[in-house]
Write a structure and sequence with these properties.
79 residues; mainly alpha; 2 helices; rod-shaped
Length: 79
């Protein structure tokens, strides 16, 4: 494979991994941190603590999974 094709492949791979990691960060912020902060500040009608814990844990888990998927995508880089 030519140097240009390898470079293009690597840049596309890094872009995909960056996108996945960005989605992971957004999911953690919106699904994990925001409900907890609003619950602690009592700015909105507060859901039950069980719902908050379950939702935050699920978002945290999915966020971690997406982060590791991004790391796996980076394993496709060519030298």
């Amino acid at each position: 494979m030519s140097d240009l094709a390898t470079t293009v492949h690597n840049e596309r791979t890094k872009l995909t991994a960056t996108w996945l990691n960005g989605v992971a960060i957004a999911l953690m912020a919106v699904g994990g941190f925001a409900p907890t902060i609003s619950y602690l500040a009592a700015t909105v009608s507060t859901p039950s603590p069980e719902w908050l814990t379950t939702t935050s844990a699920a978002c945290f888990g999915f966020s971690v999974a997406l982060h590791f998927m991004a790391r796996k995508v980076l394993g496709r880089l060519r030298s």
